[in-house]
Amino acid sequence: MSVPDVQIAPSVLPADFSRLGETVEELEQAGADRIHWDVMDGVFVPNLTIGPDVIHSCRPRIEIPFEAHLMVIDADELVPRYVEAGCDLILVHQEACVHLHRTLQNIRDLGVSPGVVLNPATPASTIEHVMDLVDQVLVMTVNPGFGGQAYIETMEHKIRQVAEMIATSGRDIDLEVDGGLAVPTVAAPAEAGANVVVAGSAVFKDPDGFHHAISAIRDAALAARA
Ligand code: DX5
Ligand code: ZN
Fold this sequence. Notes:
The chain is α/β, with parallel strands linked by helices. It is 36% helix and 18% strand. It contains 8 helices and 8 strands. It has helices at 20-29, 52-58, 75-84, 100-109, 156-169, 183-192, 201-204, 210-225; strands at residues 7-10, 35-40, 66-71, 89-93, 113-118, 136-140, 174-178, 196-199. Helix 6 (183-192) runs parallel beside helix 8 (210-225). The longest helix has 16 residues, at 210-225. 44% of the residues are buried. The mean pLDDT is 97.
């Protein structure tokens, strides 16, 4: 099956956690390209969320990839747990990894895709020397820790910078954005180079349901990239 030009990765942070299995099935049926699991340890960010066992219990329910956004202070310790849980892509924060180059290599050695995440204040230049190791760069468009925050427009310059770094690398690297993305906000980051869009509130709060939300966000992003 061909990969769409723009992928939508719903975050399940806003979900009713008592029905996660049914919810990921509904999201897959509604056209989600992957599931974005927001993992928070209460230290790197002031919130505590999803452990590996929760993800492991949902893995058999659907086929689409799982990506773990590790908002944790000790990624090296936790990465293997989320790989064992069935995550296909592991996203670690540049700010949390003292030895980022080795952490990314370790993720690749575990047989899954490494990704690196940049907080709003973190320059794109900080990942200049790991572009050969990653399959994805995630540019945060909110400060991590909570869903439902406002999109930070000033990130668009950084998205363009990362898109140029990807082009220069000559490698097939996805550029993902995460935070405050919805139909009204997704066009600018998509036009700037983002081809993977995380959306939590915009998907879960759409009165017309998951399929409408996912399709509308994708269509708005595709139109901006046309
Ligand atoms: C924030 C998370 C985001 C967030 C997205 O720390 O990384 O994935 O849950 O939620 P919305 O789309 O509501 O901003
Ligand atoms: Zn996230």
